[in-house]
Design a protein that fits this description.
The structure holds two protein chains of two kinds. By secondary structure, chain A is an alpha/beta fold. In chain A, 36% of the residues lie in helices and 27% in strands. In chain A, helix 3 (100-110) packs across helix 4 (115-128) and helix 3 packs parallel to helix 5. Chain A is elongated. The chains are: A alpha/beta, B mainly alpha.
């Protein structure tokens, strides 16, 4: 289902990856090759985003299939893999009694930095995320936003090649959310670091990622290269009819339009290159249908996501 | 990157060896333990019995000094295996107290706020994590137990001269094997409790409860059945019997010492199993 090709080597490859937890299948037969600099994991709650992240980290063993992260096998090179990634979990994750600098330094040392380098990078990472003045405070006294930032600091202090972020903007107010996304974009752009961002917030993913993998019910609902999608500049049209006319949808499908959502009086569709808005009016005229509203817009992540979610509900 | 630049870049410097990464856990936990001055003072005091033993051995062999001090010159006769067994107890009891003070926060602090995924999301696995935490107790308890025990044995052997060390090798072996066994059992048990009971006072209480409840249960079983089969779950009697057997002394347990070893092994294996159940990056709800 992947649209838009990228010549870069795959950062994450999934080869029939399946995961069962407590006897229940959580991820089913995932196949993907993700090459983007920043990859978004999208899906509704319970889609399997966090499970996929944790499986990539080796927390859960695949029940079938496997995968590779930055060329390292999940099954055979788990330790080497974890040495190259930084992980920011979704939930609270800190040691309450430790100062921020002590905490980040320890995590950097665990990732392999010598003590002196770890201390330097801990200071730098904390300044970078905006906690420079608070670095000698114990993490347990931090606000929610500060705890999110210290989680980011510990994830980047050792300079990972892949940064895994699980719902990084959870619990953040708008300025803190903007700051977090700015930092993630900065990390993406400054160094040769891949980002794997799991979120159910489309705007977060759209503003950071150039490729998305959409999960639904433990399966891949869609994956696409956002950059390629943006470049393609597909025309997305919303049409509202004055009176319901089922034949209109069929007429548009016959023109080659890709219908995202269908209803009796409201339709969302993607125009192919050789079909113009004038053709829609002509079809309406032929069927004697009145068009109350017609909006043309570019294909957004929201539309891609909605289309992916609609597949099971009879969407085309 | 530099602090003033407030920027970020990849790290491409040297890395520490993967195999020694668990020592980071140990180092930070040790540093945390010694942040308390009270604990540091107590820890230093735990060496007093051994230092007293060393001084007594030195004194008892120094007849001139005894004469100058006006003390009896037959102190040497006290240096029998009983003396060394008593000294063993005076080393083991403070070691147990140190484990009781330090261990409740070793694992619980990481579990309390979900820090375990941060450890295990790095190139350290659960085995390395437990090894790192257990090494804290091993490093804290070893100097005051078997290291000092062997120092006592070595001093006595050097002062007594002749074939004393060969005739009494069991004492040295008992200090080494007995204390190491005690450290392993106590470390595993207290780490398991720390993983399951996050509230420190409750964790300490749980350790005492396990020991006393098991002892009470064992005594009841022994009385009810008229056998010594209850000693299979009597942890204190098991370690006592094992140590006394190592010294070559009669054991308090009605069971063969092999069964006491089995008890200690079972406690350690059970503790490891409990740790394995609890120490996961994420719990799976069934």
């Amino acid at each position: 289902m992947s649209r838009g090709e990228s010549p870069a080597p795959a950062a994450i490859e999934l080869d029939g990856l399946s995961v069962e937890l407590g006897g229940r299948p959580i991820l089913r037969d995932l196949h993907a090759s993700l090459c983007g600099r920043a990859i978004g994991l999208l899906g509704p709650n319970g889609a399997g985003k966090t499970t996929l992240l944790r499986t990539l980290l080796g927390f859960f063993r695949p029940s079938a299939g496997g995968g590779r992260v930055l060329g390292l096998s999940l099954a055979e090179q788990g330790r080497e893999l974890r040495a190259t990634v930084g992980y920011m979990p979704e939930n609270d994750a800190f040691i309450a009694g430790m100062t921020a600098v002590h905490f980040v330094r320890m995590m950097a040392e665990l990732s392999g930095l010598p003590p002196k380098a770890a201390l330097e990078r801990a200071h730098e990472a904390l300044f970078y995320v905006g906690l420079g003045e608070a670095r000698y405070r114990t993490v347990g006294t931090f606000s929610t936003g500060m705890k999110q930032m210290v989680k980011l600091a510990q994830a980047i202090a050792h300079g990972p090649r892949l940064l895994m972020l699980d719902e990084p903007t959870n619990g953040l107010d708008p300025p803190a959310r903007k700051r977090m996304l700015d930092l993630v974009r900065d990390i993406r752009d400054r160094a040769e670091t891949h980002i794997l961002l799991s979120s159910h917030l489309l705007r977060d993913v759209e503003s950071v990622c150039d490729e998305v993998l959409i999960l639904k019910g433990g399966e891949i609902a869609d994956s696409c290269n956002l950059e390629a999608e943006r470049r393609a500049n597909r025309s997305f049209v919303e049409v509202e009819l004055q009176t319901p006319e089922p034949g209109f949808a069929a007429a548009l499908a016959a023109l080659g339009c890709e219908l995202a959502t269908t209803g009796d009086a409201a339709l969302k569709l993607v125009l192919p290159d050789d079909v113009s808005v004038r053709d829609l009016y002509a079809a309406a005229d032929r069927l004697g249908v009145g068009i109350r509203r017609l909006d043309i817009k570019r294909d957004s992540l929201q539309d891609i996501f909605l289309r992916a979610m609609e597949v099971d509900r009879g969407g085309v | 990157m530099a602090v003033y630049e407030r920027s970020w870049r990849r790290y491409q410097g040297p890395q520490t060896p993967l195999g020694a990464r668990f020592l980071v856990v140990t180092r930070y936990a040790l540093a945390d333990a010694f942040t308390s001055r009270l604990f540091t003072a107590f820890y230093a005091a735990c060496f007093l019995p051994s230092l007293g033993g060393l001084f007594f051995i030195y004194l008892s062999h120094n007849l001139k000094l005894l004469e100058q001090l006006g003390m009896p010159q037959d102190l040497m006769q006290v240096l029998t295996s009983k003396f060394f067994m008593l000294l063993f107890s005076w080393q083991a009891i403070p070691a147990f107290l140190v484990a009781l003070i330090v261990s409740p926060s070793l694992v619980a602090a990481d579990l309390a706020n979900g820090a375990l995924p941060l450890y295990l999301g790095r190139p350290i696995d659960r085995r390395g994590y437990v090894l790192g935490k257990a090494a804290v107790l091993a490093l804290l308890l070893s100097p005051m137990t078997w290291v000092m025990g062997l120092a006592v044995f070595a001093l006595q052997a050097s002062q007594a001269g002749g074939t004393w060390w060969r005739d009494n090798w069991r004492i040295g072996a008992a200090y080494l094997v007995g204390h190491v066994t005690w450290i392993v059992v106590v470390s595993m048990l207290t780490l398991a409790i720390s993983a399951w009971v996050r509230f420190k006072p409750a964790a300490r209480g749980a350790l005492f409860a396990i020991i006393f409840v098991l002892a009470g249960f064992a005594t009841a079983v022994n009385q009810f059945t008229g056998t010594a089969v209850g000693d299979l779950v009597h942890l204190v009697r098991a370690i006592n019997s094992v140590v006394l057997a190592l010294f070559g002394a009669p054991t308090p347990s009605g069971l063969a010492v092999g069964w006491n070893w089995l008890t200690l092994l079972a406690v350690s294996v059970l503790s490891v199993w409990l740790l394995d159940r609890k120490l996961r990056a994420h719990e799976v709800v069934r």
